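FAQ

Q: What does a record look like?
A: Structure on top, sequence underneath. For example:
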């Protein structure tokens, strides 16, 4: 089994740019959420549904792996998992840490277990090669309670290989933006204090428009930081678009930097939302 090559280290100026937006070293009472993705100039993240599209240049790809090294978990939706078969590990060389220790926990939102993950999936291969961690698949508790015999056999098989299929009460397949509170609550109980959300479009759009209750009962966005790679290309009107259902103007302390050919926007996301 081949070993992935480590990525070049970012220059000090780039790590200094990212430093204010990294998760805090001490965990709080809630999950710190970083939303990050690569988009074209026309706000598309792929050429079409199910089409894997490379947007990030080598420098911004290195940035992505650097961010992964600073989060406990990395989350994608099942559509992205099926389209891209991502490894969801970290190839950035962190001093004093092995590849497994530096890698976040892969987490897949998959209410009805469509991913059918297997040993040949890149995330499972990364774990088998000690280059990453075994994935967790979040399924609907309702679905898990009525799982078919064939799916149960599949679940038992992948769990013997180290993956986990985790039922989440409140996880819905029809309206995910009502499920984020349940997802984050479950992940917090499982020891995930910081979460990097990478896609796809439905996950991003839902997360940007959702709100959860904080400890005081106020409605807040679950997103703490937004980091977007903007590639100097257009993908056209048939591309998969990141465009939330409602207008949003809640970013602050916005900074920009150049990573190779790409432009990076980093910002904090205002917690308190007057429109909820």
């Amino acid at each position: 089994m081949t070993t992935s090559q480590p990525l070049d280290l970012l220059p000090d100026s780039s790590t200094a740019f990212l430093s204010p937006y990294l998760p805090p070293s001490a965990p709080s009472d809630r999950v710190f959420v970083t939303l990050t993705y690569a988009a074209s100039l026309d706000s598309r993240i792929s050429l079409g549904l199910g089409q894997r599209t490379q947007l990030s240049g080598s420098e911004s790809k290195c940035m992505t792996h650097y961010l992964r090294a600073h989060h406990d978990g990395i989350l994608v939706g099942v559509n992205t998992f099926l389209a891209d078969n991502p490894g969801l590990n970290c190839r950035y060389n962190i001093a004093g840490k092995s590849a497994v220790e530096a890698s976040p926990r892969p987490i897949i939102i998959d209410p009805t277990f469509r991913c059918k993950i297997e040993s040949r999936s890149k995330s499972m291969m990364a774990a088998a090669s000690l280059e990453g961690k075994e994935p967790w698949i979040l399924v609907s508790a309702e679905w898990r309670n009525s799982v078919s015999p064939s799916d149960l056999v599949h679940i038992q098989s992948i769990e013997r290989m180290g993956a986990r299929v985790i039922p989440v009460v409140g996880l819905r397949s029809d309206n995910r933006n009502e499920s984020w509170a349940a997802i984050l609550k479950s992940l917090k109980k499982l020891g995930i204090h910081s979460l990097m959300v990478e896609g796809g479009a439905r996950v991003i759009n839902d997360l940007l428009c959702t709100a959860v209750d904080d400890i005081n009962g106020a409605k807040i966005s679950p997103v703490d930081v937004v980091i977007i790679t903007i590639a100097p290309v257009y993908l056209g009107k048939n591309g998969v678009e990141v465009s939330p259902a409602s207008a949003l103007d809640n970013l602050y302390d916005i900074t920009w930097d150049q990573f190779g050919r790409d432009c990076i926007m980093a910002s904090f996301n205002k917690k308190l939302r007057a429109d909820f």
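Q: Is there anything notable about this one?
A: The longest helix spans residues 149-160.
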